[in-house]
Amino acid sequence: MFLLAVVLLSGLMLTGDLIQLTAGDGTMFSIGFPGMTDKGGEVIQRLWPMTVILALVPLLALIAIFLYKKRPLQMRVTMLVLLLSLGTLILGAFYVLMLDRKIDVNILWKVKVLFPLISAILAWLAYRGIMKDEVRVRSYDRLR
User: Fold this and answer.
1) Maximum Cα–Cα distance across the chain
2) How many Å apart are CA 74 and CA 119, to the nearest integer?
3) How far apart are CA 92 and CA 96, in angstroms?
4) What order do you get walking across the sheet with 17-23 strand by strand?
5) pLDDT in tens for each of the 144 residues of the chain?
């Protein structure tokens, strides 16, 4: 259930803008899945690490859902989803800080900025649930 919510939230991050930036001269930029775009939607700069991470998180979370018969592997994939979600936050902050150093910008935060944090929390809850299932299955194996 938690992994499905991660898939949905991460999938929503693939659409629209995550952060809008306004320069001092009135120029607007936005950071999203394709990279940094201008007001017209034209890609100014591709942010490949961000694009790859944003695409990997929902894909790996979806894969983890179907690994229910291999719980140790499912736990590893879920932990990777958690780390990549946190990496999205760190990378987004890095891009905003680097752009702020080059140009004085005003930042307009979107709600989607919170999605990686919520996805990381949900992935952690999923990891805990998978671990509890694994402990329960091992305890039943000892009883046999």
Assistant:
1) 73
2) 16
3) 6
4) 43-45, 36-38, 28-32, 17-23, 105-109
5) 899 999 999 999 888 888 888 877 777 888 888 888 888 778 887 888 888 999 999 999 999 999 989 999 999 999 999 999 999 989 888 888 887 787 777 878 788 889 999 999 999 999 999 999 999 988 887 766
Q: Cα–Cα distance between 102 and 29 in angstroms, integer?
A: 13
Smallest CA-to-CA distance from 82 within 67, 60, 65 is with 60
Closest CA to 6 of 64, 45, 50: 64
How far apart, in whole angstroms, are the C-alpha atoms of residue 23 and residue 28?
A: 6
Domains in the chain (CATH in brackets) are 2-143 (1.20.140.150)
Query: What does pTM read for this prediction?
Result: 0.87
Distance CA 133, CA 72 (A): 11
Pairing of strands 28-32, 43-45: unpaired
- State which H helix or E strand residue 95 sits in: helix 71-102
Rg of the Cα trace of the chain?
A: 18
125 residue type, one letter? L
With CA atoms as reference, report the closest residue to 57 among 38, 80, 73.
80
